[in-house]
């Protein structure tokens, strides 16, 4: 069954041209002209990934992301203008999976969609990545093949980005990982996000674990250096 993409933009030319390009690659596409329309549509007809313009009338991309994140971890790629660098950073901190700047190459956008969907398939266990072994660190268990994280036997639901950051830390407990190293692990070397975005991901990770265990303190901050997963 083809994977389904929600394309959300108030520019009709983008809706037409990008949907045609995605359909030519075998994706099923649902188009929406603003955030309110998309929120209703995605709520009744789930999709595999959403491509969302930040600047839209009625409900902008930021609010749509926030509303969708209340219900699911649907992968979201932001479309931004050249002058929206601040919005890109805020969006990534809020949990967007990627962004691409207008004007953009349709080929580049399709490659970003492929990359995000592949991460989701790996997380769901519908695609395997050879060599990915379950990681056990004391009370923590990470199963990359199923995108499953547990702490003291209780499941902790993580986004793909959060899972990748935690996996990078837990693979070598006691070793410090810089923000740049965590950035590369979560987003790839082709994408730059500022240090505060990584800090925000770490903050959300701690919050999710503390919701399961008030005493969780395994992720340590080394100010001016980076983060590490406690060895004991």
Overview of the molecule:
This protein is α/β, with parallel strands linked by helices and 232 residues long. It contains 8 helices and 11 strands. The strands form 3 sheets. A 5-stranded parallel sheet has the order 2-1-3-4-5, with helices on both faces. Strands 6-7-8-9 form a 4-stranded antiparallel sheet, with helices on one face. Strand 8 and strand 9 form a beta hairpin. Helix 2 runs parallel beside helix 3. It starts with a strand and ends with a strand. The model has no long low-confidence stretch (mean pLDDT 85).
Brief account:
Helices cover 43% and strands 19% of the residues.
Q: Give the helices and strands as they follow along the chain.
A: EHEHEHEHEHEEEEHHHEE
β-strand amount: 15-25%
Stretches with pLDDT under 50, minimum 5 residues:
none
Beta strands, count: 11
Mean pLDDT: 85
Determine the number of helices (DSSP H or I, runs of at least 4 residues). Answer: 8
User: Which overall shape is indicated by the principal axes computed on the Cα atoms?
Assistant: elongated
User: Which radius of gyration do the C-alpha atoms yield?
Assistant: 18 Å
Q: Which structural class best describes the helix and strand composition?
A: alpha/beta
Spatially, the strands of the biggest sheet line up as 2-1-3-4-5
Termini separation: 45 Å
Largest sheet: 5 strands, parallel
Helix content: 40-55%
């Amino acid at each position: 069954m083809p994977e389904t993409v929600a394309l959300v933009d108030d520019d009709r030319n983008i809706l037409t041209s990008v949907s045609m390009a995605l359909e030519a690659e075998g994706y099923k596409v649902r188009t929406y002209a603003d955030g309110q329309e998309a929120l209703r549509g995605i709520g009744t007809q789930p999709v595999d990934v959403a491509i969302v313009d930040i600047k839209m009338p009625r409900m902008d991309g930021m609010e749509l992301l926030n509303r969708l994140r209340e219900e699911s971890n649907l992968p979201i790629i932001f479309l931004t203008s050249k002058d929206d660098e601040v919005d890109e950073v805020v969006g990534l901190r809020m949990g967007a999976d990627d962004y691409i700047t207008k004007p953009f190459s349709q080929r580049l956008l399709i490659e970003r969609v492929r990359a995000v969907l592949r991460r989701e398939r790996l997380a769901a266990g519908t695609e395997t990545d050879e060599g990915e072994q379950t990681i056990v660190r004391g009370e923590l268990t990470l199963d990359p093949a199923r995108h499953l994280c547990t702490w003291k036997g209780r499941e902790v639901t993580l986004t793909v980005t959060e899972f990748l950051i935690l996996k990078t830390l837990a693979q070598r407990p006691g070793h410090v990982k810089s923000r740049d190293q965590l950035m590369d692990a979560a987003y790839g070397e082709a994408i730059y996000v500022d240090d505060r975005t990584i800090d925000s991901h770490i903050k959300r990770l701690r919050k999710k674990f503390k919701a399961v265990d008030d005493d969780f303190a395994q992720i340590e901050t080394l100010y001016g250096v980076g983060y590490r997963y406690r060895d004991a």
